[in-house]
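forwarding from the other thread:

> can someone predict this with flavin-adenine dinucleotide?

sure thing
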Amino acid sequence: MTRNVLISGASISGPTLAYWLHRSGWAVTVVEKAGALRDGGYPIDIRGTAIEVVRRMGILPHLRDAHIDMRRCTFLDADGGEVASVSPHAVVGSVEGQDLEVRRGDLAAHLHAMVRDDVEFLFSDSIDTLDQSRQEVDVTFHSGHQRTFDLVVGADGMHSHTRASLFGPEEQFHRYLGYCFALFTMPNTFGLSHELMMWNTPGKAAALYAVGDNDEVHAFLNFHRPEPPSDALRDPKAQRDLVATTFAGAGWEVPHMVDAMYDADDLFFDTAGQIRMPHWSSGRVALVGDAAYAPSFLTGQGSSLALVGAYMLANALAANRDHTAAFAAYERDLRDFVAMNQALVDNGAATLFPTTVRALEQRNTMLRGLDTLPSAPPRPAHSALVLPEFAPMP
Ligand SMILES: Cc1cc2nc3c(=O)[nH]c(=O)nc-3n(C[C@H](O)[C@H](O)[C@H](O)COP(=O)(O)OP(=O)(O)OC[C@H]3O[C@@H](n4cnc5c(N)ncnc54)[C@H](O)[C@@H]3O)c2cc1C
């Protein structure tokens, strides 16, 4: 008999899992809170092992076409003077010609296109309650509909509702990394094209990223803060005011950016943090991607872990008819890879965002050195997992 699964979240890990589970004979439903596929355009990286996942899905050529050809990263001092201008690969340890950087919305659209004809999508809805008291999962949706599934998977991101309803509040699994950030788009009045400009003072960074020759740039304001600003996280006005106060008196284009932040209708404010959990499943419900093991944007590995994690979960379910054995295999085979990638950053110690005068000087010395070198070696963590062949249908 065909088994059915409900996946909550239609971004990166959700549709990837849907693709591989459909391939191994599952009937798949995906529920997404948003009214349509979210096309937010900030750039994300696909590297190492994750490249193999998208290759096996047949979308690597499309993603190569969508690759953002970022040509330069220019670092600026407090007054806007140039510190160094280097190749992006040299900074992040990605492999030129292999690893990819694409707009998040482009990746989500390609993944969705792979499954939309075979998988049921329920937009503008979400899971209200999960009841595992029988040999199945009884789901009540926010819309009031009730359905029953063999399994449920939460692919609903860093602030996962599935995780909260299964394991309790986020605080116990959230590891704050000492930074807050605001991300928004603003007019490209700077004439930037295919490049990133980053201004730093100790504990503060402002970046403008022109993904192509567009009329808009991605603006990014990041700052160090020992404790998370719990109140501001729930209040958009307080978020803007906190950013404005933090960057008051800053040089370069920062005052212009702060003004644009107040006008932006797409402001995304959050803390940089990771999700670390002792287990990624409970009964017939499992978590995948950021919901289970968000590594934070500081590693640039969130989308890669989401792709690889979804593949590994689907593979474990294809290889093990028993879901308990499958979930155990998923954790056993993925946990080291997750741990290595989460270990790429430590609290307040992100290479690109130094928090002290000394750390900033050291980073600038390193960047000036990179200017004369071809490229930094790729990070071993990016490729530390060799993907198993996809298990045949049981
Ligand atoms: C500013 C920023 C920069 C980043 N840069 C990079 C980068 O350079 N490289 C990189 O690899 N990663 C980066 N990331 C992280 C990357 O976007 C995530 O790690 C990755 O998208 C995780 O995918 P996911 O599908 O698991 O979760 P998400 O992409 O968070 O998707 C979760 C989905 O679930 C939906 N959802 C949420 N709640 C519910 C609910 N209750 N019911 C139903 N649906 C729900 C959401 O609408 C969303 O569609 C960045 C993130 C941010 C915020």
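The mean pLDDT is 93. thats all i got for now
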